[in-house]
Amino acid sequence: xxxxxxxxxxxxxxxxxxxxxxxxxxxxxxxxxxxxxxxxxxxxxxxxxxxxxxxxxxxxxxxxxxxxxxxxxxxxxxxxxxxxxxxxxxxxxxxxxxxxxxxxxxxxxxxxxxxxxxxxxxxxxxxxxxxxxxxxxxxxxxxxxxxxxxxxxxxxxxxxxxxxxxxxxxxxxxxxxxxxxxxxxxxxxxxxxxxxxxxxxxxxxxxxxxxxxxxxxxxxxxxxxxxxxxxxxxxxxxxxxxxxxxxxxxxxxxxxxxxxxxxxxxxxxxxxxxxxxxxxxxxxxxxxxxxxxxxxxxxxxxxxxxxxxxxxxxxxxxxxxxxxxxxxxxxxxxxxxxxxxxxxxxxxxxxxxxxxxxxxxxxxxxxxxxxxxxxxxxxxxxxxxxxxxxxxxxxxxxxxxxxxxxxxxxxxxxxxxxxxxxxxxxxxxxxxxxxxxxxxxxxxxxxxxxxxxxxxxxxxxxxxxxxxxxxxxxxxxxxxxxxxx
Length: 485
Known about the structure:
- The chain is an alpha+beta fold.
- Helix content is about 50%, strand content about 10%.
- The chain contains 20 helices and ten strands.
- The protein has helices spanning about 1-15, 50-55, 55-70, 85-100, 130-145, 160-175, 190, 195-200, 210-220, 240-260, 280-295, 335-345, 355-370, 380-400, 405-415, 420-425, 430-435, 440, 445-450, 455-470; strands spanning about 110-115, 120-125, 180-185, 220-225, 225-230, 265, 270-275, 305-310, 320-325, 325-330.
- Strand 4 (about 220-225) and strand 5 (about 225-230) form a beta hairpin.
- It is globular and about 85 Å long.
């Protein structure tokens, strides 16, 4: 029976090889089988899950997703741009190997990226070929597991995001939950127990070949420089399948917390449980840690885990407070410090950037940062940050003028009387000190900086809040609006 399925798949592949591009895949022929206008439901044809994963439409979608996401090459150094040609020549061999259980994924390439804490986060980059098949698996498993996932889970899920998680936290705080249990899972993606994960997967996935293929990806190993390291545990971050497997594993914890009636929010491995008293928070923390370590075989970082009032915790870069009984959001001080450090890098006087690149880099960072933190009450904060930010810009501009002649010419052009301009052009004061002087504050003004193309954080924040006001649904025919924050 198994050989008959492979024969049918092979015949289907060959029967479509000679079709023209216009007869098959609109928008350009891919390396895979050409999709039909009316795709066959493989389940109705009696195929198993693995055949559905390797179906033409699913693999085409996976290939296009990997190509769109781009990304670095893996251990074979193949780039995404070379993927189409490679798979055009090797697709039959790869698919046959997977169906026959002989396929062996390549090790992932270990790279390190800096974390907010100053430590390094380890990523495992699969080859582009392995990314296609991981993506194909994820596309089939996601709709299968989505109905099983908790409403309290928001990370790496369709139509769910960090803002929704934060809004749920805010609602719980409004309801009177004043204490938080902040549990930090120690290197979660590196410490996932393979046996436990396979057990959880086997409850839903009945095609043993799919379980075997996933297990091969889990145990493919890691390439660190010139040395190979076996992967006896963990789900390497960096592949399309890793976030889904992480959610499947931690859904066990979600279901346990739901059965206990707890109010909690989870975004990937970042979780917070809300309680009404310090005593209950301590009790919840103790019992939850026991479940995580004894039942899921994961490790909790006790140095970073805590129970604390909601105003003392940091969650997804935010912190919380109450005003007139309403839960509110503000930016955590550590997030503010990192933001200012990044602005300092982007306004460095010695990075050799031209004005256009500096404006582009600043605009990109400011737009992204404000869009993420737009839920916070931060109008006054951003106005203060902008004052400091404008001073740094004046420092950069003053240094760019360099020569006395250039300073004199530009100050006169900006409306300074000649004798005064000569005096300031010859000053020996340092760049940072002169940037706060009356002469630069009244010449390199905020309006002139805006006209030159510099974006300020408070301006973009007001724009985003106004957009939210306009887009907010109007309840029961009354005029909608956003309360000032």
